[in-house]
Every structure is written in C-alpha cells, then in structure tokens.
C-alpha cells in the first residue's frame, strides 16, 4: 500500500507582486558572450517567477498557443535575441526608472507555458537567484476560441456543446498546461469547471526541456549542486503525469474516498463520461483562497475545498518509512539519526565532507523545529532565513541530487509552511506527527 500527497489547496500565497533586480551597466550594443549570462539570468528569473504564482491571473490575454517543435523553438530563440537586442535601451530605461524587460519576458514565457514553467518551478526550490525575487506581476495567455473549439471537438465530438446548458468560451483561469472554463451540465444543472489542455504540450515536453537545458548550461549560471539533468528528468516525468487528465480524474476520486468521512474537506465530483486525456470536467468549487480566510468566522474557515489534483502522487512504503524516521530524529534533535536516515533515503552518500554533512543535518534540525514543541507559532518563525543561509554550502559540497520523490513532496510542504506563516498559524505539529508515528 502506498501513501499519497495531498493536492493543491485552494489558496494564494503570493499576491500583488512585482520584480526588482539589481541594475547592471551595459557596455556594448551588440549581443555578445559577455552579456549572455545577464540574458540567461533574466530568463531563469522569469521562469521561476511565472511558475510560482498560485493566484488567479489578474489579466488574461488571448494568444495562439505555439504547438509545434519549430514554433516553440522560434520562441526560445526569439526570447534570447530579443533580450540581447534590448539591452542598451533597457539600460537607458533603468536610468529613467522605467523598465519593460519584465514585460518582454513575461509576455514571451506566458505564451510558452508547459515545460518552461515546470522547470522554473522546480529550480525555485533551491534558487540561488531568490534574493532577486521580491514579487511577481502575474500574466497569462489563453487560447483563441477557434483553438479551444478544435480541442473540444476532437475530444468530445461534433455536438459537444449539447452536454452543457451553459459554456463560457472565455476562460476564468489560464495556467502552464491548460485553461479553465465555467459551464453548467445540461443533465442536472451542476456548476462546472472544465480544464482544457493546450495543444502540443505533451509532444513538446522533450524538445522544450532540451532547449531549456541548453539555455541554462550555456549561461554557466547555476551551481553544480542543483544537478540540472536530474531536475529535468524529474520535471519530464511530472509533466507527463500532469498532462494526463484521466490520471488526474482518478486522483480526484482517490481523494474523495480518503476524505469521504472528513467534514472539513470538500472534493469536487468528476464527470467521467465527459473527461478525456485533454479535457477534465469537474464540479466547480466556489470558495475563496485560504489567505482570505482570516476575515471569516471559524465555522466557514473550517471548510476547505481541494482543487488541482494533477500533481498528486503516491510514495512507496520504504521512502515513507525513512522520511518519517528523519522527521522523528529532527523532533528529538538527534543529529546521528538525521544523518543515518538521510543516507538510507538518498540525501547523502556517506562520503560527504564534515562541512556538507553538518550543513545538511543543521537544515533538517532547523526544518524540524515545529515538531519539537507542543504548539508552534509560525508567525514568529525564523526557519526560512536560517535554512537559506545553509543552501550555498549544500549546493557547493553535495555529492548527489536529492531523491526524486522529494521534488514534488518538498514543494507541497514548503507551500503549507509558507501558508501557515502568512496566516500566523499556531499549530500542534508535534501532536500531528505523533498521530502518524507514535510517541516521539
């Protein structure tokens, strides 16, 4: 039997954001090897920024999605050339306090979506550029109506609209892999959220990731400790999962079973007969982001709706057992236990220097602090800054990439941690852990 990670909670952690970067002086008008690092740095920043935004985009723009390898390669090439050609004028704009580099990058990447945003999301876990990321202005493109209609026709047939008493052709949300339309089921008037996948996403995954690998490696920007090739391997696997809407529908039903007796969670109903690999039809959840919940009474705040099950996954028992033993060791401030089980699970090889081993164990003990006390006050946490200070050492001295399972798991855990910090939550973390593993 395997364990399952929870889906994305209906929440928004980053709001009203923008980008600030340190000014650089441009000495040449020509695109050159000298300024290629600057160009790739901007590309990486926006890959990360666009991907970590969880809030519904404020402005949606219609734009044909590039759905062939040639058209997507054109956009990657145009991105680098456009940034280089605009370098001189950009330095002038900086002098006057006006910058459009962010807009150029967001506009281009919002058309690419798919693998570009997934890789940026994964790199943001241990992002050496994090100090440059203060806020992000969200932007998103959606397919023109004719492109959306073509997909719906191919997936649901000539008379697909007859299944709905209402279907809004303008999407209510657009993300990296698909867009969401509101509708109403003709048979029972159920309010629906229909996710329609962009064309060519699956076919472009390999070429997109290869193009991104080339861009990043040419820049020589990322440290060796990020293990780019392994990150890309995991990104490819997760992208294939997330582009399979039949798999996502099965995950929704799995969580319905797991949470059927829990009154605190609501899981949407799937309309299976209208769902395919590229179209997912679900009951629409009408709640508010969790970050807005602080103004509501407790009874309303106790009800949480779960959406977006595409990134759900299972873990084998061996991984879960070792991971829980790491958490238990951290809760007991057991340095030897943290190191031993880190080797068992694959964080360490056993041949690391003392500097690396100590930094790794220090990071685990720091992250485990919420489990060391009966009630942990997230509003007073200093964990984020302390772990951030350890990251350069771990990137420099690590000998192996982290276990593949932890890429997605740690994104979920970090999201929950940041949410608790934003809400100023006081949580009985130790009690929750003991309910799973027994007395610490």
TrEMBL record:
<keyword id="KW-0547">Nucleotide-binding</keyword>
<dbReference type="InterPro" id="IPR004147">
    <property type="entry name" value="ABC1_dom"/>
</dbReference>
<dbReference type="GO" id="GO:0006744">
    <property type="term" value="P:ubiquinone biosynthetic process"/>
</dbReference>
<protein>
    <submittedName>
        <fullName>7316_t:CDS:1</fullName>
    </submittedName>
</protein>
<dbReference type="GO" id="GO:0016740">
    <property type="term" value="F:transferase activity"/>
</dbReference>
<feature type="domain" description="ABC1 atypical kinase-like">
    <location>
        <begin position="135"/>
        <end position="295"/>
    </location>
</feature>
<dbReference type="InterPro" id="IPR011009">
    <property type="entry name" value="Kinase-like_dom_sf"/>
</dbReference>
<keyword id="KW-0808">Transferase</keyword>
<comment type="similarity">
    <text>Belongs to the protein kinase superfamily. ADCK protein kinase family.</text>
</comment>
<keyword id="KW-0067">ATP-binding</keyword>
<dbReference type="GO" id="GO:0005524">
    <property type="term" value="F:ATP binding"/>
</dbReference>
<dbReference type="InterPro" id="IPR034646">
    <property type="entry name" value="ADCK3_dom"/>
</dbReference>
<dbReference type="InterPro" id="IPR051409">
    <property type="entry name" value="Atypical_kinase_ADCK"/>
</dbReference>
<dbReference type="Pfam" id="PF03109">
    <property type="entry name" value="ABC1"/>
</dbReference>
């Amino acid at each position: 039997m395997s364990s399952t990670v929870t889906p994305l909670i209906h929440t928004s952690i980053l709001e009203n954001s923008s980008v600030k970067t340190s000014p650089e002086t441009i000495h040449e008008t020509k695109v050159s090897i000298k300024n290629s690092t600057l160009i790739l740095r901007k590309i990486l920043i926006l890959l990360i920024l666009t991907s970590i935004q969880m809030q519904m985009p404020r402005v949606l723009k219609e734009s044909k999605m590039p759905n062939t390898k040639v058209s997507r390669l054109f956009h990657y090439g145009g991105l680098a050339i456009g940034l280089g050609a605009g370098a001189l004028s950009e330095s002038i704009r900086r002098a006057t306090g006006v910058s459009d580099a962010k807009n150029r990058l967001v506009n281009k990447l919002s058309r690419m979506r798919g693998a570009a945003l997934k890789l940026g999301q994964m790199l943001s876990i241990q992002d050496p550029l994090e100090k440059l990321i203060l806020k992000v202005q969200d932007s998103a493109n959606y397919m023109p109506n004719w492109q959306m209609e073509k997909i719906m026709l191919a997936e649901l047939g000539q008379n697909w609209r007859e299944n709905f008493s209402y279907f809004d052709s303008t999407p209510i949300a657009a993300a990296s892999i698909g867009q969401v339309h509101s509708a109403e089921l003709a048979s029972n008037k159920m309010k629906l959220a229909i996710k329609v996948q962009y064309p060519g996403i699956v076919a472009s995954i390999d070429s997109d990731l290869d193009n991104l690998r080339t861009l990043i490696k040419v820049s020589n920007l990322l440290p060796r400790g990020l293990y780019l090739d392994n990150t890309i391997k995991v990104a490819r696997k997760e992208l294939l999962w997330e582009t399979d809407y039949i798999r996502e529908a099965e995950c929704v039903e799995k969580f319905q079973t797991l949470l059927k007796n829990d009154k605190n969670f609501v899981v949407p109903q799937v309309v299976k007969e209208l769902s395919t690999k590229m179209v997912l039809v679900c009951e629409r959840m009408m709640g508010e982001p969790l970050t807005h919940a602080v103004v509501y009474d407790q009874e309303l705040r106790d009800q949480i709706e779960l959406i977006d099950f595409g990134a759900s996954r299972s873990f084998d028992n061996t991984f879960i057992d070792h991971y829980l033993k790491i958490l238990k060791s951290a809760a007991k401030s057991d340095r030897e236990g943290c190191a031993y089980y880190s080797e068992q699970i694959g964080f360490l090889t056993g041949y690391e220097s003392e500097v690396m081993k100590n930094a790794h164990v220090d990071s685990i003990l720091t992250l485990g602090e919420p489990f060391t006390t009966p009630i942990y006050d997230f509003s007073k946490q200093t964990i984020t800054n302390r772990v951030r200070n350890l990251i350069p050492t771990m990137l420099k001295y690590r000998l192996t990439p982290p276990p593949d399972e932890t890429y997605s798991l740690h994104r979920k855990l970090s999201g929950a941690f940041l949410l608790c910090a934003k809400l100023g939550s006081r949580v009985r973390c130790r009690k929750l852990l003991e309910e799973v593993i027994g007395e610490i």
